[in-house]
Amino acid sequence: MIRKSFIAAFLVSTGVVALMTPVVLGLARKYKLFDQPDALRKIHQEPVPRLGGIAIGLGILLPVAALGFTGNDFSDELHSDYGRLVAFFGGALAILALGVFDDLRGVGAWGKLGVQSLVALLLWESELRVDSVSLFDNPVNLGPWSLPLTWLWVCGFINAMNLIDGLDGLAAGVAFFASVSLFAIAQFDGIGFLALMAATTAGAALGFLIFNFSPAIIFMGDSGSMLFGYIFAVSGLWTASKRASLMALALPIIALGVPLFDTTFAFVRRALAGNSPFHSDRRHIHHQLIDFGLSHRQAVLVLYLLCSLLTVGAIAVRAMDDYRIALWLGLLTVTTAVCLRWLLQRRANQAGRQ
Fold first, then answer.
1. How far is CA 244 from CA 117, 231, 239, in A?
2. CB 41 within 8 A of CB 287
3. How deeply is 317 buried, as exposed, middle or buried, from its count of CB atoms within 10 A (0-12, 13-18, 19+)?
4. Which residues have CB under 8 Å from 176's CB, separation 6+?
5. Of the segments 69-73, 308-312, 332-336, which one has the largest average pLDDT value?
6. How many CA atoms lie within 13 A of 294 on its CB side?
7. Interval 315-326 mean pLDDT
8. Which pLDDT belongs to residue 263?
9. pTM for the complete prediction?
10. CB atoms within 10 A of CB 82
11. Given this model, what pLDDT does residue 262 score?
12. Are 210 and 161 in contact (CB under 8 A)?
């Protein structure tokens, strides 16, 4: 029953997004809701309709609501976590509303961080949080560090997905690959809600890619990218609350290694330059791949390849259930990313001197 529900959720989510995106696209064109070109950090040359995140939100949340709040075997399984389920939906709607408002009117970086912080507090209060971790089979109680670490986790994932949304199809593709790993991990851990969320998120990403892959005819906007980040943040917290181990936290980080590393590097880079961590620039990894000489599609496909390798790695780590593999994979990923960054930066510096 549950296995059929996953397939149904994936197909329904894909269908909802594929049907609703043209509706959102028509409204965006009618009311001239476009993402305008910006030579500083944006790639597109012409105005492109945005607000695709509304269709993504419907595709992710409607199947979950249908299966989670109606009488069936799956909803019975979720009722034991009813408080968390309500907190999840409340936070998701808040993040989606924040993104829509930002796409329409614009919200400053600190305003967005404020709403994200309130959502993180809501999740923490509902016990979707990191209270303890098992390090080398020894439980470590986080005590007063639980709240700030939960806040960092939630805000970090949301903003990582937001910042990686810089090329046509990139954020949706990253979300799809991460959802595949999340689904496999949820199956290993026997957490039905996470498997359902992974199925709907993968379906929503795939349905949106029909319209968003280069050349995109619509952008997801902050409403879509932040919602994707929120979903992955909650998934990690939900897993950690069920399986308090360091690996439970490491797996989502591995699966989303590309956006998380890029965001961390961007914040450190800006801080060292004396700028605000929210100061926009054109030095993200996808920008540098373009500057390296790759076409738009080639840059996206290179990052898809990296994401697929990390997806396989995350699944392998969970299947073998060995933290040492996670450490080696993490070290290899960081080393590869640093070398790639160095190569791209060296090429950019050489091009600047010519």
1. 23, 19, 8
2. yes
3. buried
4. 202, 205, 206, 209
5. 308-312
6. 18
7. 74
8. 86
9. 0.89
10. 12
11. 86
12. no
For 182, phi then psi, to 5°, come to -60, -40
Helix (H/G/I), strand (E/B), else coil: 52? coil
* Residue carrying structure tokens 């069936």: 72
**d(C-alpha 221, C-alpha 203), whole Å:** 18
Q: How many angstroms separate the CA atoms of 142 and 94, rounded?
A: 28
Nearest to 163 by CA among 50, 288, 260: 260
At 194, which helix (H) or strand (E)?
helix 192-212
Q: How far is CA 215 from CA 47, 151, 169, 170, in A?
A: 12, 36, 9, 12
Question: How far is residue 347's CA from residue 293's CA, in Å, rounded to a whole number?
Answer: 10
Closest-CA residue to 285 (of 162, 163, 176, 173): 163
On the question of pLDDT at 311 being above 60, the answer is yes
- For the chain, strand residue ranges (E) read 34-35, 48-49, 132-135, 138-141
More confident residue, 158 or 86: 158
Q: How far apart are CA 99 and CA 223, in angstroms?
A: 4
How far is 236 from 128, CA to CA, in rounded Å? 9
| Contact residues for 41 (Cβ-Cβ < 8 A; gap 6+) | 166, 280, 281, 282, 287
C-alpha gyration radius of the chain: 20
Pairwise CA distance, residues 8 & 46, whole Å:
37
Tokens standing for 70?
């109606």
Helix (H) or strand (E) holding 70: none
- Mean pLDDT of the 205-218 span: 95
